[in-house]
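Please produce the structure of this protein holding adenosine-5'-diphosphate-glucose.
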Amino acid sequence: MSRLIVVSNRVTLPSGSGDGSVGGLAMALAAALREYSGLWFGWSGKTTPAFTGHLNLQRADGVTVATVDLEEVDLQEYYNGYANKTLWPLFHYRQDLTAYDRAFGEGYARVNRRFAETLAPLIEPDDLVWIHDYHLIPLARELRALGVQNRIGFFLHIPWPAHQLMVTLPGHRQLVESLFDYDLVGFQTPEHVQAFEEYVLTEAQGARVGREGLRAHGRTTRVGAFPIGIDAADFIRLAQSETAQRTYDVMKAHTAFRKLIVGVDRLDYSKGLEERFAGFERFLADNPDLRRETLMLQIAPLSRDSVEAYQEIRARLDSLSGRINGEYADIDWNPIRYVNKTYRRDELAGVYRAAQVGLVTPMRDGMNLVAKEFVAAQDPADPGVLVLSRFAGAADQLRQALIVNPNSPEEIAEALKRALAMDRSERIARWRVLHDNIVTEDVTAWRDAFVRALTGSRDALPGPGLAVHGEQAHPARDAPSRLYPDAQARGALPPMARWTGV
Ligand code: ADQ
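Below is the modeled complex.
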């Protein structure tokens, strides 16, 4: 079996301690790496005065983790700059917050080159390489330039924006062209796939969707939707753990048996927290009789706090929650409890389980795992109701949630009212469908679908040598390959992977 190399900006060491402190994605990738005796490569999270390319190698829980330090200027230009001030806001439809700075673009290119130079010597001929997220879009191009011929796949965790937004990015052509150095490009939802295809078919001359994939810039890549899931079995187990039960009891006692509405998000403007508070405020204003029976808990740990947009939204949320509490609170009740702490996963599971409503209202989100965790944590005999933004990728799968437009405080308020009043039989009926979905389309299914598709990604191409009439063969990608997958690895694609070109 091929070895799997996973590359992401940050690497989370699997603790293996079973205390639920490692995220579902990290656990799943760690499990994938164990199965494939693989390697996880990324930034250490540390900076040094000058880039050395020195690799820190560690083995944890059967997984080899290789990290590299970056320079302070890399952190500013690549991570805080191009990744988090340019691509993140643009891909989340916040053109108003998108910064276009030449130095950011240069830093982004430099770090991707440095990653490639550090990683390339570690890659063996049969390895599969799986690169994650918007920080590393040009990494395959850099690896190809160094002669790496392996199958390389890319998965974008955030949305792919609409064509008209994408073209506002200086250098968008070059960025998109670099995606054609991958054998497989995966998105969270069919909508993102469609937006990507529309961009390519409009912007790249002679581009077409063919049997073998999306063809542009003289190359072909497979494109598909691979909706990410959670480790549902593990989260269900965590929700029944002692810690979850204790947290549940504390929540129940502290809410004085009021109905709890819960939101859990990184503090990020894409998560729609201000709009959520506004929706809850509308609910309070419209429903004086229900007011004192409810309580909203918003957990929002700080993230990317050195980026100004994040400092600003933090200040606005402090003031908004203060204002709403000031207006509606009583001596024994505050409508909003707003905390910026990080919790263990088993504690979070207890919080979700204690809530009547999970309020997940991002303005844009690639998927949103909180929605899925909320479903996993519920008591099957008395589940809470998920209220979910139509702009979360998860809305494509979790259709039994109450779907809302987060821009409308009225819709949020209405959905809250409906959720709080919903009778048990309807709650159970809705929850069962949601639950089946998160259990079936879990993180293992996601990982297997992607790895299988990557393994078979050169299968349908018309044989070795490969130059299609009138188009340029890619020397590395199209080389006659000893990497053709074995028959066993070429299993049928699961229904969750929707394809372009096959
Ligand atoms: P994120 O934007 O980080 O991920 P999300 O999918 O919701 O968003 O995942 C957040 C994770 O952080 C969840 O597992 C949640 O439990 C955890 N978390 C949040 N608040 C926490 C707290 N206070 N304490 C502890 N844990 C907390 C990006 C994309 C998403 C996509 C994922 C995975 O933006 O759209 O779903 O990647 O692909």
